[in-house]
Write a structure and sequence with these properties.
The chain has 289 residues and is mainly alpha-helical. The protein has helices at residues 32-45, 53-64, 78-88, 112-121, 126-138, 144-161, 166-177, 185-191, 195-198, 209-222, 227-237, 241-255, 261-264, 270-285. The radius of gyration is 19 Å and the shape is globular.
Length: 289
């Protein structure tokens, strides 16, 4: 798969010692899953209709198999590799998702927020959005434990879109953790444990959703009034900080009026991304005929 079907011309960097996951990428470039979220944004903005599962999976396949590669990343999570391995064997695209040891990972949530925003702005109910997001995840991440976290993420995003006050935000964050972690998040926050003990000892730094989801909620709650610090801490804690950071940044953006303009404008594709965001909002918010 790597080099021939996806990640064109990147096979040389695989199975080599001391090669960074995202080798060769420049400051401000987006990693692969962020590009996949942009693919979804463009798909959603291309039609006034609701999310079209077939339209997205077709766009995803086209994007991932472009020559030359349409993104700068060297790494693709196992879900990408498994999807295209199944596709090459003749499976229908909607049946190419695989289950592996790391299917239930934080990277799966990267494309969920644009879908929630689009559906919610169209006036779709929270329950219907959960069903839609589950169907979307099933294309690449058919795992029930992950679906349950996705339900909580959808509920949290919809709640934050309503503009709650500071206390309301904290309640939403704590509610999002209930039943999904064995560690009581409220009790952990009261103990004021150092961040590098929370992440690394209590929770793993790895991608697994059982640890990465409560880590995101912990950082969003603890640094509610200092989003810059939340993002810095997440980065310095290491592990799968890229995908944690995308989900964390989404939550921070909804719960704070502080606009991350200075950082956003350092993204290589910031102008294109801004246009894609504007198009998504414009189409989703347009009055129904």
């Amino acid at each position: 798969m790597v080099g021939d079907v996806i990640l064109k011309d990147k096979a040389q960097f695989w199975d080599q010692p001391n090669v960074h996951y995202h080798q060769g990428m420049q400051a401000g470039e987006n990693t692969l899953n962020a590009h996949c979220a942009r693919v979804l944004m463009r798909t959603l903005a291309s039609s006034p209709q609701r999310y079209d599962r077939q339209a997205f999976v077709n766009a995803y396949i086209d994007f991932m198999t472009m020559t030359p590669a349409a993104h700068p990343d060297t790494y693709a999570e196992s879900y990408h590799r498994g999807f295209f391995a199944n596709l090459a064997q003749g499976r229908k695209p909607e049946n190419c998702g695989i289950i592996t040891h790391d299917t239930a990972s934080i990277g799966a949530l990267v494309t969920i927020a644009p879908l929630v925003f689009s559906e919610r702005l169209k006036g779709i109910s929270e329950d219907e959005i959960k069903i839609t997001c589950r169907a979307h995840l099933a294309l690449t991440h058919p795992d029930e434990s992950l679906m349950q976290v996705c339900d909580s993420y959808v509920q949290l995003l919809c709640g934050l879109m309503d503009g709650p006050d500071e206390a309301g935000v904290k309640t939403l964050l704590l509610d999002a953790s209930k039943g999904l972690t064995s560690t009581n998040l409220a009790g952990l926050l009261k103990r004021n444990v150092p961040d590098n003990q929370v992440v690394g000892q209590i929770f793993s730094r790895a991608c697994y959703i059982s640890d990465s989801w409560p880590v995101v909620l912990y950082l969003a709650y603890k640094y509610q009034n200092n989003p810059w610090q939340a993002l810095r801490v997440n980065t310095n804690l290491g592990g799968d900080n890229v995908h944690r950071g995308i989900v964390l940044g989404t939550l921070l953006g909804l719960q704070s009026d502080i606009v991350a303009t200075s950082w956003f404008e350092q993204l290589v594709d910031h102008k294109e991304i801004a246009h894609e965001i504007e198009a998504l909002i414009r189409v989703a918010s347009a009055p129904k005929p």
